[in-house]
UniProtKB/TrEMBL annotation:
General function of this protein: Catalyzes the synthesis of dihydrouridine, a modified base found in the D-loop of most tRNAs.
The entry's keywords: Flavoprotein, FMN, Nucleotide-binding, Oxidoreductase, tRNA processing
CDD domains for this protein: DUS_like_FMN
Record GO terms (molecular function): flavin adenine dinucleotide binding; tRNA-dihydrouridine20a synthase activity; tRNA-dihydrouridine20b synthase activity
Pfam families: Dus
Source organism of the structure: Seriola lalandi dorsalis
EC number: 1.3.1.-
Cofactors named for this entry: FMN
Protein's name in the database: tRNA-dihydrouridine synthase
Residues covered by the DUS-like FMN-binding domain: 23-285
Amino acid sequence: MKTCNGNSSIVDMFEKGKVLKICAPMVRYSKLAFRSLVRKYNCDICFTPMIVASDFMRSVKARDSEFTTNERDRPLIVQFAAHDAQTLADAACVVAPFSDGVDLNCGCPQRWAMSAGYGACLINKPELVKDMVRHVRNQVDNPNYTVSIKIRIHKDLRRTVDLCQKAESAGVSWITVHGRTAEERHQPVHYDAIKTIKDSLSVPVIANGDIKYLRDVESTHQLTGIDGVMAARGLLANPAMFAGYEDTPLECIWDWVDISIEQGTPFTCFHHHLIYMLERVSSQPERKVFNSLSSTSAVIDYLQNTYGSV
């Protein structure tokens, strides 16, 4: 981990009429190299992948492997999975010199996370969430450092509003709302629910879910009045989405190659990102050939022969 100079507050980035564009926390994918790529294409804020706070505090090896950054990797939010306030606060204190804020995952619907007391099960424990927000706020010695939460919604939206208002009273900096319940996967996003939550709070609200093109940013803003949008799969398919590209431009593909080589990205991660980027711009036979490639040099040769250089 490398210390960055200065620490301005991300809250200052929220301006009336402006919609911040944010790269979501994605397990295996939103690591330093990918964050470096999307920052070149108008991404305002990046999240790390979700890190289990207890493992992070227990193991130096976990800290070194789970959290890597550099001086250009800002603004940066570190997302943690936690189910007790002090562990979250301890983890926040460790990463605070190297980041701009921490986020508590209250939205992961995966069975392993919920059975361990992490993720979306926390939306049913508003007092615990309130306590965790307050612990971070009180123990990180930096008034500009943010603490946020990322949630899913309840079927009874009054419970979600209550959760958010309790977090707000504890000092939460902003709230990201994935507009689906913990049981929903690919069902339509409940924009009306996001709007209700936005209208019930004074802190900024970020909308998450089905942001696939730049035009979705404005349409979501029009529907909900939110202060920012967070994208996951949309950015995997097209890391230049926030810059207005409909599909991944060739320049972005070669930027990914350069960044991956420079940062020593493992081949599997390097390859998987390219599979996502090329899915909408390649034919099925081309994808079959590309997916079978097993070395960086083979990938580079394929890209040069198929698409050429920038």
